[in-house]
Design a protein that fits this description.
The chain starts with 7 loop residues before the first strand and ends in a 9-residue tail after the last helix. The chain is an alpha/beta fold and 314 residues long. It has helices at 17-28, 40-55, 79-92, 119-140, 174-198, 217-225, 228-241, 245-248, 250-257, 291-305, and strands at residues 8-12, 32-37, 68-73, 98-101, 146-151, 203-208, 266-269, 279-282.
């Protein structure tokens, strides 16, 4: 991983799982990391753990004393929180080199965000769409190449954008809603890159996925459903099939820092069934490259969030 000294990085969902491991790696390589977390208490506890890890001098850390960790509140299920985070970020930081849209929820019972969106679509896609839009001037105003990295999932391959029922009010399937949100992540990532390229911006947008990583993401759905059987089944699957969260974070880190990565690419594990292993550039599903759906989703997302990008249609 290249040196990240003098770089400012925002990682959403940085208090656990892939976000925690990503924040640790960025800080250990010298970056000033903003840990964007829904809970300040959990974020601060995670930051203390990361500082203790780096203070112990892990062999992989190239600049454990040069980086910094700042915890800021961000609730992607509340657009007012997203706007407030962006405003406070602008007051505290002059540059933004990398934005990692990492946080998410998976296969949870249907519920609604503060703004009335189905939670998986609202948190995984619309919250990050709004956040990126609010921070775009900070990213584009930073000298040199900057990157937006959006975390998707291999499950996006089963996804379909239900434009007539985006909020899944007519029919809700927790996995179908999750797959839609992860497909939306890639449609957004690719469309953002096309629009940035159209204006000759130095910012690139990249998609990624972690494969099957052993994190708490798999547990929230069973916990909210009150299904002890499903919870233990998920824990068993994680133990048998999942790679570590640190390894699962590698595609995001590769997409964010590898010199050879280009805008519009998709990075994931290159091992067994793309579920584990070292990161590589891959092809995502044909549906993820549908430019008509991407443009339509972009327009709908601007309308729903009220966040308009100063970028022309590609």
């Amino acid at each position: 991983m290249p040196e990240q000294t003098d770089s400012t990085v925002v990682v959403t969902g940085a208090n656990s799982g892939l976000g925690y491991e990503g924040a640790t790696a960025f800080a250990g390589h010298g970056a000033d990391v903003v840990m964007a977390c829904r809970s300040l208490d959990r974020g601060e506890a995670a930051a203390e753990d990361i500082r203790a890890t780096l203070a112990a001098g892990p062999t992989w850390a190239s600049a454990p004393d040069a980086g910094s960790l700042t915890v800021m509140e961000l609730d992607l299920a509340d657009l007012s929180s997203v706007a407030r985070f962006a405003e406070q970020f602008g007051e505290r930081f002059d540059e933004l080199h990398t934005l990692c849209n990492n946080a998410g929820v998976m296969a949870i019972p249907r519920g609604e965000t503060a703004d009335g969106f189905e939670r998986q679509f609202g948190i995984n896609h619309l919250g990050h769409f709004a956040l990126t839009g609010h921070l775009l001037d900070d990213i584009r105003g930073t000298a040199g190449e900057t990157r937006v990295v959006t975390q998707s999932s291999g499950v996006h391959e089963q996804g379909e954008i239900e434009f007539d029922d985006l909020q899944r009010e007519q029919s809700y399937d927790k996995w179908g809603a999750y797959a839609q949100s992860k497909l939306a992540n890639l449609l957004f990532a690719y469309e953002l890159d096309r629009r940035l390229d159209a204006v000759g911006a130095d910012t690139v947008s990249v998609g990624c996925h972690p494969g099957y990583a052993d994190t708490n993401l798999q547990f929230r759905g069973p916990e909210e459903s009150g299904s002890t059987l499903r919870l233990w089944a998920m824990k068993a699957a994680n133990a048998l099939l999942g790679q570590s969260a640190a390894t699962g974070a590698l595609p995001m880190l590769y997409a964010a820092t590898e010199a050879g990565v280009e805008g519009g690419e998709y990075v994931g594990p290159g091992g067994l069934m793309n579920m584990r292993g070292a990161p590589e550039t891959q092809e995502s599903s044909p549906a993820s490259y549908d430019e008509d759906d991407a443009a339509r989703l972009w327009d709908v997302s601007e309308e729903l969030t009220g966040v308009e990008y100063d970028l022309p249609e590609a």
